[in-house]
UniProtKB/TrEMBL annotation:
Catalyzes the condensation of carbamoyl phosphate and aspartate to form carbamoyl aspartate and inorganic phosphate, the committed step in the de novo pyrimidine nucleotide biosynthesis pathway. It catalyses: carbamoyl phosphate + L-aspartate = N-carbamoyl-L-aspartate + phosphate + H(+). L-aspartate binds at K87, R170, R224. Keywords: Pyrimidine biosynthesis, Transferase. Coiled coil: none annotated. The gene is pyrB. NCBIfam families: asp_carb_tr, PRK00856.1. Pfam families: OTCace (PF00185), OTCace_N (PF02729). This is Aspartate carbamoyltransferase. Belongs to the aspartate/ornithine carbamoyltransferase superfamily. ATCase family.
Length: 308
């Protein structure tokens, strides 16, 4: 088996196309493992991993923990809300205290963009970025591309539209990098106020008409509005946003072709996507969640092999 070109997973921006293919091939193996009656392998019995979460999470935190346990790693979980961070302890002090308990790898979610990069330069451990503010969410983009590959056979040449709050979305940025690295065509669609200025400089095209964007694409990745990152109002009302940028079953059924619907979660049912779309045959939302475990097993396994 090959090895990754990086020691940490800080963002898709730092990966090569060959890294993504290696992660996918390794995930194929682990997906087979987690579908066996005994879902565990002894690969990382000598590795200890800390999951350090400074921001809320359901999918990512549970998926990393499960991936680590399936690989037989020792796991400790840290949540900032119940920690001495509340007493003023700094990020580096917090992580160095965790590392002094002989931890090999830190999986971190943090509200500040670049927090993982900062940590990787200041502590001795392999760092995995589980989402840093509005910057990157690399394992989400990897599991998204892996799910497209599983559903459509390949990512190269596919038309993918990312719809919604592109401005505040780490999922959007990581997906743009990952999809382009694999040769997909990427469009972004949303209100002008939620599209970054000069977004075309990332090599994507812009469409503000949702129907046109959906008729162009093979896959639509629907994002939620990142209300926790909005300091001002970016659109008049949620109802108006839904009318212009929400996908409902009538719209989906009226398109020229059958498209694949994705969503990184958490879903705001009835805002960016209606329940009958989220739960339809065209939706692969729960496949994304399932694939997240295999992808995270692959990432941790490949990074751990660089520690030993
Ligand atoms: N997709 C995602 O990152 O979900 P969580 O915030 O629940 O981890």
């Amino acid at each position: 088996m090959g090895e990754l070109s990086v020691k940490h997973l800080l963002g898709i921006k730092y990966l090569k196309e060959s890294d993504i293919q290696l992660i996918f091939e390794t995930a194929d193996h682990f997906k087979e493992v987690i579908n066996r009656s005994i879902k565990k392998v002894p690969s990382l019995r000598d590795i200890t991993i800390a999951n350090v979460f400074f921001e809320n999470s359901t999918r990512t935190r549970l998926s990393f923990e499960l991936a680590e346990k399936r690989l037989s790693a020792d796991v400790i979980n840290f949540s900032a809300a119940q920690s001495s961070v509340k007493k003023g302890e700094t990020l580096i002090d917090t992580v160095n205290n965790i590392l002094s308990m002989k931890v090999d790898m830190v999986v971190m979610r943090h509200p500040n963009p670049g927090a993982g990069i900062f940590l990787s330069k200041n502590v001795k451990a392999s760092i995995v970025n589980a989402g840093d503010g509005a910057h990157e969410h690399p394992t989400q983009a990897l599991l998204d591309s892996y799910s497209i590959r599983e559903k459509l056979g390949d990512v190269a040449g596919k038309n993918v539209v990312i719809v919604g709050d592109i401005l505040h979305s780490r999922v959007a940025l990581s997906n743009i990098f990952a999809l382009q690295l694999q040769g997909a065509n990427v469009k972004v669609c949303g209100p002008k106020t939620l599209l970054p200025k000069h977004v075309e400089s990332l090599g994507v095209t812009v469409e503000t008409n949702l129907r046109k964007a959906l008729n162009w694409c093979d896959v639509a990745n629907m994002l939620r509005i990142q209300n926790e990152r909005l300091d001002i109002s970016y659109f008049p009302t949620t109802r108006e946003y839904t009318q212009q940028f929400g996908v409902n079953k009538a719209l989906l059924d009226s398109l020229d072709k059958e498209i694949v619907i994705m969503h990184p979660g958490p879903i705001n049912r009835g805002v960016e996507i209606t329940s009958d779309v989220a739960d339809s045959k065209q939706s692969i939302i729960l496949n994304q969640v399932e694939n997240g475990v295999a992808i995270r097993m692959a990432v941790i396994y490949l990074l751990a092999s660089k520690i030993k």
